[in-house]
């Protein structure tokens, strides 16, 4: 699993028929501090994530092991929305914090 921030959505009106009904998100991988750390990937969303949220995603054959993506030509899938994370006892991100979060891209 990889950690990423949802940057936006991808809309494709013409696509492989088995992809119909899948919401596609544009993700940027982040490090444990929430800073951009890697490329951008398009992933199928099976959990209803939104722009600005941090998510966990899988790539490769693991992306086709969810109920929604089974037997579909997906190379990346968002499978969890992150509520918080901490590193060595320090909270790095808290989804509904009233103060600014440490993790920002």
Major sheet strand order: 1-2-3-5-4
As a percent range, the share of strand residues is over 45%
Q: Which sheet architecture does the biggest sheet show? A: 5 strands, mixed, barrel
Total domains: 1
CATH-wise, what's the superfamily?
EutN/Ccml
Derived from helix and strand composition plus strand pairing, the structural class reads: mainly beta
- The radius of gyration over CA amounts to 14 Å
What best-fitting shape do the alpha-carbon axes yield?
A: elongated
Number of helices: 0
Can you describe this structure?
It is a single chain. The chain has a single domain, classed as OB fold (Dihydrolipoamide Acetyltransferase, E2P), CATH 2.40.50. The chain is 0% helix and 46% strand. By secondary structure, the chain is an all-beta fold. Strand 2 and strand 3 form a beta hairpin. It starts with a strand and ends in an 11-residue tail after the last strand.
SSE layout:
Elements: E1 2-10, E2 23-30, E3 36-45, E4 54-59, E5 76-81, E6 84-87, E7 90-94
Parallel strand pairs: 3-5
Antiparallel strand pairs: 1-2, 1-4, 2-3, 4-5, 6-7
Q: Nutshell version of this structure?
A:
The protein is mainly β and 105 residues long. The chain is 0% helix and 46% strand.
Descriptors:
105 residues; mainly beta; OB fold (Dihydrolipoamide Acetyltransferase, E2P); five-stranded mixed beta barrel; two-stranded antiparallel ribbon; 7 strands; 0% helix; elongated
């Amino acid at each position: 699993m990889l950690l990423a921030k949802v940057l936006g959505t991808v809309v494709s009106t013409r696509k492989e028929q088995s992809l119909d009904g899948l919401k596609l998100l544009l993700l940027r991988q982040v490090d444990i501090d929430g800073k951009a750390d890697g490329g951008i990937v398009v992933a199928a969303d099976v959990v209803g994530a939104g722009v600005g949220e941090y998510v966990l995603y899988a790539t490769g054959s693991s992306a086709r092991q969810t109920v929604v993506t089974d037997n579909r030509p997906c190379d990346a899938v968002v499978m969890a929305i992150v509520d918080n994370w901490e590193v060595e006892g320090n909270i790095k991100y808290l989804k509904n914090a009233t103060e600014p979060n440490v993790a920002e891209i």
